[in-house]
Design brief:
The protein is mainly α. It has helices at about 30-60, 70-85, 90-115, 120-145, 165-190, 190-200, 205-210, 215-235, 245-260, 265-285, 290-305, and strands at about 155-160, 165. The longest helix is centred in the N-terminal third of the chain and has 32 residues, at about 30-60.
Length: about 325
Amino acid sequence: MFATFAIGQTVPVELFGFSSETAAVPLFIDLSIGLQLLAFAILLGGIYGLVALGLTMIFGVMDVINFAHGALMVVGMYAVWWMTNGLGLNPFLTIPIAVALLFVFGVLIHLTTIAPIIDASQENQLIVTFGVLLIIVSTIEIAFSADPQSLDIDLGSVGIAGIYLPEGQLYALVFAILAVIVSWAFLQYTQLGRAIRGTADNRDAAQYVGINVPRIDYLTFGLGAALAGLAGAVIPLFQQINPHLGDAYLINAFVIVVLGGLGSFPGALLGGMIIGFVHVFGQFYLPGSGYQIAIFCIFILVLLLKPSGLLGGDSNE
């Protein structure tokens, strides 16, 4: 009955009984419509949160703004698409393979491009990561073309009390929640996780107490890339992909990282839910790209009132 709602798609108001030509959408809507929009918002928010996880880890530990994060997502998308359609593997089996591939890829990117300029100004790091983005996206475009691609599967949807839940987005939400829990537990209870937290708090002090900071850096970048790969790997489950799709997710992911708090994994999920809510309800009520204006208004408001973010400062303690 409903089309899957994702980045690049709009809320289909005709399916709710309203006219897109007259934009006759009332301020107060029926409860069932509100619940359906809320379901869309939660599902999209989970995906946003998953995208922001790797970004907040890299920035929180290394203080590196990784513009290549969206491109790493695209590698995850095409890895799942190629292994599913080209090799005939189960798409859910290809997701962990894509995550492992992106971890190794992330470590290699860090060692070859980030490590040599880790102490340089952030402007240099921005330029380098932007260059990595262009190389990755261009390579994928050459290898697979710029045409949209999709998995040869139809997951369908789940109906609960009259509310429509696309299975692909539902799986993505589950992956997002699990990723937050596993990442938080890893940072909280493992020796390596505590070393990463210590490096995030004070890089110099971490080195003085014997932590191998360069090793922590490449492991952190690899983990951030793996989380980007996980985010990208679940996206083909519910929408078509193309080499530039990561950029659309990345823009709002930066907003989510600041909104939730730098380095905060629960904050990334909370921020994703908030932006998902604004995105879905904003597209339903506001004309054109008005929802994006609302998102950036929230971004500016948070910077003015609580620069550390909603859950910033205590995420890993």
